[in-house]
Amino acid sequence: MDAYDSGSDVSREAEAEEAAAREPQAPPAPEPLTDASPASSDAPAPEPRTGVAALSPRYQIGAALALAVVAVAVCVHLGMVFLHVAPSNTVTRTHGEAIDDWIYPEFEQNWKLFAPNPLQQNIAVQVRAQIRTADGGSRTTGWYDLSAQDGRAIDGNLVPSHTQQNELRRAWDFFTASHDSDNRAVGERGSLSETYLRRIVVLRLERGGANGADGVVERVQIRSRTLNVRPPEWATEKVSSQPVFRVLPWWSVLPGEAEGDAK
């Protein structure tokens, strides 16, 4: 009886082992990835460097030096061309030979930067008048600096008028262009320029109260005061600091000229 029972137990154990072998086995669980694994990083791969950045530090320094040399050469060339075409000034007079050596013959220019050349003088238009007083007498005023009056009106004014900026200056340029150094008219417009200039100064005198309460402007005399602009401290050129005057003869004022009635 005992032998039979032990045999049955052995057979049942063998059948259980065979059934377990026939059943599919579950795959083993994967091992957890550690933080050090490359697959756990979400950062994108760095892009490859291009251009100068792709060079080694030694070649980057060489490229930077080459670019700096080219930039300096371009700036020097542009400066030399500018000085070559600019009006005569302290720099061109001092370093004219070096400028010419750089420009000629490859970079010669046949045009000028400014036309006409900018003024290097301060020109002021001044006037004085003979006034006939109410009692029949006569008096002569001092010199009125009309250009200085225009300058004070313009200084600090964001929108100065056209007359403040140009009326008197253009009238004087008109006169000097149509008269010689002896104040004689050299063209058909000489008389017109005299009338135009005289009318402007008479209007300025009367508006400024130069004739007094009951006085009348009978004659006017105009002069220009020219003063050279001082060169910079480092310049070697010497210019006169004394003003030069150009004095015109006395002009009689026509009746009604101050009101613009003169023809």
Describe the structure.
With 263 residues, the chain is α+β, with helices and mostly antiparallel strands. Helix content is 40%, strand content 14%. The chain has seven helices and six strands; from the N terminus they run ααααβββαααβββ. Strands 1, 2, 3, 4, 5 and 6 form a six-stranded antiparallel sheet that branches. Strand 1 and strand 2 (138-140) form a beta hairpin. Helix 2 packs across helix 4 (96-103), helix 5 runs antiparallel to helix 6 and helix 6 (162-177) runs antiparallel to helix 7. It is elongated, with a radius of gyration of 48 Å. The termini are far apart. The relative contact order is 0.09. The model has no long low-confidence stretch (mean pLDDT 82).
